[in-house]
Amino acid sequence: MSSTHLRLLSFLSLSLLVLAHEHHDQLSEEQAHAPVDTILWIHMALQAAVWGVLFPIGMVLGITRSRWHVPLQATGFALTFGGYILGHSHKGRQFPSSVHGSYASILFIPIIAQLLHIHENHCHGVVGKIYPILGWTQMIFGVLTFRGYCRGGALGQCLAHYIMGSGFIAYAIIMAIMFLVGEAWVRRSGRSPEWWDSWVIMLWVSVNTFTEHHGGEWSVKDMQHTIMGVLGWAGGILGIFLSRNNQRNVVPSLIVILTGWGMSEHAQALAISTKIHALFGNTLMLAGLTRIIEICFFVPRFSPEVADDDGRSEHTLADGVAPQQSGSSTKAAASRVFRHLTPFLLVSAGLLFMSATDEELRYVHENGMDHVTYALIMFRWSSCVRFISVSFLLYTFVVFLIHLYTSTGRNAVQNTPTDVNIEMSPTQSKWYARVPNDADGVPSHVIGEDDDEELVRR
Question: What pTM was computed for the model?
Answer without folding.
Answer: 0.77
